[in-house]
Amino acid sequence: MSLSPLLAQARPWRLRISLGQGRLTLYGGLAIVFGWCLLALCAPWVAPFDPLQQNAELRLAAPSLAHPFGTDNFGRDILSRVIWGARIDLQMALIGVIFPFLLGTSLGALAGYIGGWLDNACMRLVDIVLAFPFLVLMLAIMAILGPGLSSFYIAMALVGWVSYARLIRSQILVLKHSDFALAARSLGFGHRRILFGHLLPNALFGSVVFCMSDAVLVLLNGAAVSYLGLGVQPPTAEWGTMVAEGQSFITSAWWICTFPGLAVVTLAMGFSLLADGVADRLGDRS
């Protein structure tokens, strides 16, 4: 008996399973990220306590019905601080991606399309930035500028743009010799219209997917610099700062570090699933 008909019937089934997994990944990531965004927006109404309110009588209280995540060494409610901290960490993840994306995309597109000395200068600058460890260069810039969110965003823009520039440049180098680009030139279209109207929209696929994956790295870097004391400063509720404040009590009050750490992991997983889901969906359409 021939197996060809059976294999022919099996292929659509495997395809449906693959597409279903892609949708499941996308919707799962969307649900996690949207849930955190909703929680952050509704923090004034959802958080049971003021995140900065101290209570000496409740210092290092274990998780209970009144305080599900326990309290820290100042008697502040951990659950309320985690909810309010979502605002800062989501802001860092989003803004920390937007500026490198815009800067890297612009420079990479111009370097790939124009070529020549501009391309050489841009790529040598990329090589210089990549020669330094990412986090070390970020910390050096933030140490010069001073601690705070503004310094974090500037450092991310100055260091993180190189990945987007390389991605866009490689796509533009291929697309500018494609048939539709040659047709646009033959019709007399200007360079600006060809680059930004035809080439760049077709080159953004990889950068958009990487942008969502990069949000995970930005989130972790934001928590890391706050943990090291160069990011968000106490007493502001931020997950990395909360982990740093609770490290001295890890053996006696594990909940101070555990719940902010789980929040970072959960949001990072949401961005990662969202990036995989978007890549699957855009890949199906291409």
From TrEMBL:
Pfam family, any one: BPD_transp_1
InterPro entries the record matches: BP-dependent_transpt_permease, MetI-like
Main location: membrane
Organism of this sequence: Pseudomonas muyukensis
Organism classification: Bacteria, Pseudomonadati, Pseudomonadota, Gammaproteobacteria, Pseudomonadales
Localization, UniProt: Cell membrane
Keywords tagged on the record: Membrane, Transmembrane, Transmembrane helix, Transport
Transmembrane annotation, as ranges: 24-47, 90-113, 125-145, 151-168, 203-232, 252-275
Protein name: ABC transporter permease
Similarity field: Belongs to the binding-protein-dependent transport system permease family.
All copies of domain ABC transmembrane type-1, residue ranges: 86-275
Membrane topology (UniProt): Multi-pass membrane protein
